[in-house]
Amino acid sequence: MVHVENLKKNFGKLEVLKNISIDIMEGEVVVLIGPSGSGKSTFLRCLNQLETATEGKIVVDGNEVTDKHTDINKVRENIGMVFQHFNLFNNKNVLQNITLAPVELKLMSKEEANEKGMQLLKRVGLETKADAYPSQLSGGQKQRVAIARALAMNPDVMLFDEPTSALDPEMVGEVLAVMKELVADGMTMVVVTHEIGFAREVADRVVFMDGGYIVEQGTPEEVINHPKEPRTIDFLNKVL
Amino acid sequence: MISILQNYSGMLIMALGKTMLLTLLALLFAMVIGMIFALMNVSRNRVLNCIGTIYVDAVRGVPLIVLAFFIYFGVPSGIQQLGKNFGIAAFEQFRLTALQGGTIALAMNCGAYMAEIIRAGIQSVDKGQMEASRSLGLTYGKSMRLIVIPQAIKTMIPSIINQFIITLKDTSILSVIGFPELTNVGKTVANNTFMVLQTWAVIAIFYMVVIITLSKIAKRIERSLNRER
Q: How many folded domains does chain B comprise?
């Protein structure tokens, strides 16, 4: 599903990703953990080319996104992304946020999109908020709408960039619950998070990153409960 | 003052109408010019950035009165010269009316300021809005048009109305190319009546009434926009 080979990313002189190679299977849930500045988010944003890779090759769903001739917009239709700060469209109401892209990209008629949008809102428990504007929602509600918006495109893979980091503690649960449902449905997911508990519970594979490298990866049992690398042990000691 | 109003009010109101016409035309074109150059300035393309910067710097670096002379006298004379040298009859006769010349000069001038207002407006919208839109597969152009610009306009409205008022006042500079707007007609009236103080007082009040009305309307629009969510 996702194939990454020798990925490097520099911001000016700063090397953020030094040499990343990883393969993610269909239906796999991969959770990226690591200290801030370790390159987790940058890695995630390279997958849909919100950041252009400096070097290396990324293939998503059979499309080489690092190739300049690839129509990146077409590939992005199949890659859902959820952001730390939600990034709901402030000038659109909740339902319009969800239906905008499928309608504009002519994947659905307006009626189909509205129907699908209401279904998704029901799924995330917000069908009563269809007409509300983002500024009228709580953080947790916003993030659930953002997930629904990404799902409306029927993506093959979902990227989560610290989806709960900007939330008040009491709202983290409702967002994680929606994400767990997605896991149960067999969605391919790549999640950057600080929620170690979530990683332990749902991840097929936990990847620990530090300093632009993948330091250690394996099942939650291996990486979280029995880490081998000193840096992983040190990090987990601090956050657990 | 009363006698000026009695004898010349029709003429002055006509002139005020011309002033408004010139302002509105200039503003209309300035919006288009401003949008084009603002989009150039926020794009990631170096060449477009450069063109945008050159335009804004060049126009803002020239006084409006010089720009007006350049457009109204300079450019037609250049074209006529060209026509003579290459025997193109249509070029030899080329002239601009005062309204055309005035509109172009004012629109170019106002467009440069408008470009800066629009650029600032676009940049005030959180980058995440564009990213979210792009992540769904929408193009840069569609994201701009559907998501970023509608949000930018809201923050831009007070500055745009302010620019509208400045442009309205700037029309008086165009009396130098003979366009019969309010200031130009004021000159004529003062010369005919010798009531110089009274005439200019009336002209000042005319401008003031229009501009104060405009700023009041602006305030109201601003407030109603803020009330909307």
A: 1
Q: What is the CATH number of the domain that holds B40?
A: 1.10.3720.10
Give, in order, the Cα–Cα distances in Å from B121 to each of A97, B24, B105, B139, B153: 22, 22, 24, 20, 7
Residues of A in contact with B139 (CB under 8 A): 73
- The total of other beta-carbon atoms located within 10 Å of residue A200's CB is 17
Domain limits at B12? 2-228
* Cα(A182)–Cα(B202) distance, integer angstroms: 73
Neighbours of A195 (CB within 10 A): 21
Cβ of A83 within 8 Å of Cβ of B147? The answer is no
Task: Tell me which chain A residues have a C-beta less than 8 angstroms from the C-beta of B135.
Answer: 48, 50, 76, 79-81, 150
Q: How far is A143 from chain B (nearest CA, A)?
A: 12
Query: Does the reported pTM lie above 0.95?
Result: no
Q: What is the ipTM of this complex?
A: 0.92
Question: Which tens digit of pLDDT belongs to each residue from A171-195?
Answer: 999 999 999 999 999 999 999 999 9
